[in-house]
Design brief:
The protein has about 110 residues and is mostly helical. The protein is built from four helices and two strands, in the order ββαααα.
């Protein structure tokens, strides 16, 4: 899997790998997707760090997802990037877990049961 350097320093886009079959819960679906595509979390970290470095104090995971989708399409010549919106809350929790200093930048709500 070859990466492509984006416009944002450190942002590397890979071809997304989709799981075969669908686990029953959103959490299980997320864990499978994340295991197949660890670069997505790294890309979200890079986007977050870049945005906060530019002076932002608050950031929305929805905006990050859309920016990542845009970069993916431009880097892969239009490959279909299916990033499930149900994964947003899981990714924001991972971002904060790995970067506790970002806790105040994100609004985190309770998870609904799957």
């Amino acid at each position: 899997m070859e990466g492509v350097q984006g416009e944002i320093p450190g942002l590397v886009i890979h071809t997304v790998r989709q799981p075969e079959g669908q686990p029953s819960s959103i959490q299980a679906q997320f864990e499978t997707f994340h295991q197949l595509n660890p670069w997505v979390l790294r890309a979200l970290e890079t986007l977050t760090a870049d945005y906060l470095k530019r002076g932002a104090r608050r950031i929305g995971i929805g905006m990050l997802f859309e920016v990542l989708r845009w970069h993916y399409v431009t880097a892969t010549e239009g490959d279909d990037f299916r990033l499930n919106n149900n994964f947003r809350s899981r990714y924001v929790r991972l971002l904060i877990e790995r970067n506790p200093e970002w806790e105040r930048a994100f609004e985190v709500r309770s998870l609904r049961t799957d």
